[in-house]
Write a structure and sequence with these properties.
alpha/beta, 6 strands, six-stranded parallel sheet, single chain, globular, 7 helices, binds farnesyl diphosphate
Amino acid sequence: MALFEKKEIKPPIPPEQMPKHVGFIMDGNGRWAKKRGMPRTFGHKAGGEVYKKIMQYCRDIGIQYASFYVFSTENWARSQAEIEGIFRLMREGLIDVQPHVKEGVRWILVGDRTKFPQDIQDSMTKLEEDSKDNTRLTSLMCCNYGGRAEITHSVREIAELVKQGKLDPADITEDTVNEHLYTAGVPDVDLIIRPSGELRLSNFLIWQSAYAEYYFTDILWPDFTSNDLDDALRAYAKRGRRFGGAE
Ligand code: FPP
């Protein structure tokens, strides 16, 4: 084997058992920083590094879609300093991930981006545009995202079509609602992972997670590693998913 040959990464579970779409609630950054006597933004910075590692690992083991909760519609209630800190990390992150465009990763920014500073919106659009033909991993970045806001957005678009006489209310189905979500075209989430010991969904992908499996762990997001993802995937592979049917 050549000295610098890339190490082959062995997925923790067989490909046919791999979830197609995994969602990550990147929680615990603030507590991680507090334990070290550091400001919350220090924890978010560490969390952003973990995002990059986990995103790459998802790509390498054959997960097709990975959603990351970066900034929720409720996070505007945080201090201006913390919000500015997250904006700074988003700016850096949107540039940092550019090299991975060549490695098959596609980015989709999910949520109402119009509330972010214009330069961040422009970088988001550029990253989506530059990576739109990639097919190895789709990394969905949920920014100013809330599941209820997303469903409301979908309903508003559908109502507009009805108003214009283009759609009969009797023809509205679950697929119609799905097609107007920010995640239109993306398969439902199979597995949602929430670290940091909290046992909540916090408005994350609430439509798309109707049949998702959940995995909770006490590890704080900045400490989360590919081994922890392996544990979650092994636990997922043992679950019997019946989607409301019987065995
Ligand atoms: C939740 O932890 C985390 C957030 C609200 C922000 C997530 C942001 C990042 C990981 C950085 C930016 C990432 C990218 C990919 C550019 P918390 O602050 O609620 O933690 P706590 O519950 O311990 O207070």
